[in-house]
Structure formats: C-alpha cells, structure tokens
Amino acid sequence: MRALILLGLVGFAAQLVDGSLGMAYGVTSTTLLLAIGTNPAAASATVHLAEIGTTLASGISHWRFNNIDWKVVAKIGIPGAIGAFAGATFLSGLSTEVAAPVMSIILLVLGLYVLIRFTAFGLPRGNLGKPLRKRFLAPLGLVGGFVDATGGGGWGPVGTPAILASGRLAPRKVIGSIDASEFLVAIAASVGFFFGIGSENIDFAWVAVLLIGGVIAAPIAAWLVRHIPPRILGSAVGGVIILTNVRTLLRSDWIDASGSIQAIAYITIAVIWAAAIAYSVREYRRDRDNETVEAIEAEERRRAAEQETAGSVGTIG
C-alpha cells in the first residue's frame, strides 16, 4: 500500500511538472520505476498506459485554458505516434541487462539537456506568429516519439525545447500542444508494448495509481502554466533525473562502481544541482525585476506623452 501511495504522489508531481513545463512526466515516472527494479520495457509500458489518461486529461485542461494550437498537434502528433510504436517494438526486443543501462543513458542525456537548457537560457521568446511547417514538425515528431518509447519519456524534452527555440509559438501554446499531442504518442507506444511484451509484465495497479495522480494534477498544471517559473522548475527536474539515472548506471554491470566512487559522484551532482537551482532563481528574479522596471518606464513615457499632448491642445485652444 505504501508503494502505491508513493506512486500516486509521483504521478501527481510528475504531471504537475509536465503540465506546467511541457515535459518530464514520462522521464520522472520511468526513472522511479527503474530505480525500484522494474523491467525497462515494463516500466515504459506502465508509464505510457497511464499517460493515455493523463495526457487526455491534460489536453482537455489546456484546451479549456486556450493553451493549444491544433494545427501543431496534428502535424507533430501523427509522426510522433509512428515513432513511438517503432520505439516500443525496438525496446521490447532488448534483454533487461542491455535495456536498463541503455534507457538510463537516454534518460541521463535528457536530464542533462533539461537542466542546462532551463538553467542557462530559461524559456526563449521571439519570432512569435510565424508558422511552424510540417517539414520541421514531422521529423521532430518521429524522433521524439521513438525516444519517448525507448527512454520511457522524452516527448516533452525533445519537442518542447525545439519548438520553443523556434520562437514562433507562445510558450503556453507550446506546452499545451505538446501535452495534447502526447495522447497519440501514448496510445501508439502502448500498442507497441502489447505486441512486444504482452500484458503479463505490467502491473495495472501501478498504472491506475499513476493515472489517478496525474489526472488530479492535470487541471492544476494547466492553470499554473501561466504563473509558475519554468526556469526554476526545469532546473529542479533536470537534477532529479540526472541523479537517479547516474545511480542506476553506476550500479549496473557496465560500470559496477565502488561505494566511494558512487558517493563522490552523488555529492558532485548534488552541489552542481544546488548551484543550478540557485542560479535559476537569481536569473528569474533579475528578469522579473527588469520587466517591472521596463513596465514602469513605459507607463511613465505614456503619461508624459499624454501630458505633452494635452498641453499642446491647451496652447492651441
């Protein structure tokens, strides 16, 4: 029972992050399942089955808050589903001894990307309004879907930063569209895993509690997407993913590191992680203060212009 409650809380937290940031539900949930010894293919299958419900709930919630561009959903979601089915089939054919380190490496790379991207750059803005073309979104969807299925997560970390970097879609629209299109990816990946490993290796109680936690968090996350600082959240989530998957790799047969080496690695990661979060907080506050100053200066210029116009009219009269 304690394990189920923990998984429910993980599902809630992961969806809260995913719905606010456009990534990390699958990566966070799969990382935990791997850490407690779940078969890699079964872990990814469990998460993707839960994501069918969480992404549907998230998509509906983002739709209600007008956070979705449906053209983007169609252009990236269908190729993403194809890539996810292929990735699920590929992962199902790997042995556990090979799959666990491979998945951890994928998750580690995604974690590094999330940490660096959001710590150093935050959410990029610019070139808003320009169309996102199919020749950009289709390959992105194929790669994102494949990585998502093989890594147990990755649709958001691949798709969200790439579209944000284009600067052509408002951040809340990017996050909402990625979350909505992930519904197609989750279905395709689940079908692929059923073909590859069947259902006997999947604990449907785990699927249920992950789903319940995620569904509860989905509407909260859709509302928070306009208020929560993504830069800070990205740094925090990236650190969790890195730390957990380094632990898996150091304990795997590929490395089999000693206890002292593991301790040094964990302390080093923790220090870097804390520094990244502190830097993100500082940069977020600085950007917020700059925006406040700019808004005040703009308001003062507007009032000065109005007074000048009123004075000119009075002189003429």
TrEMBL record:
Location of the protein in the cell: Cell membrane; Membrane
Primary place of residence?
membrane
Q: How does it sit in the membrane?
A: Multi-pass membrane protein
**Keywords of this protein's UniProt record, alphabetized?**
Cell membrane, Coiled coil, Membrane, Transmembrane, Transmembrane helix
Q: Which domain of life is it from?
A: Bacteria
Please give the Pfam families that the UniProt record associates with this protein.
TauE
- Please give the coiled-coil regions recorded for this protein: 281-308
Which InterPro entries does the UniProt record give? TM_pro_TauE-like, TSUP/Inactive_protease-like
The record lists the membrane-crossing segments as 72-92, 98-116, 180-198, 204-225, 232-250, 262-281
Family affiliation:
Belongs to the 4-toluene sulfonate uptake permease (TSUP) (TC 2.A.102) family.
User: What protein is this chain from?
Assistant: Probable membrane transporter protein
Organism from which the protein derives:
Streptosporangium longisporum
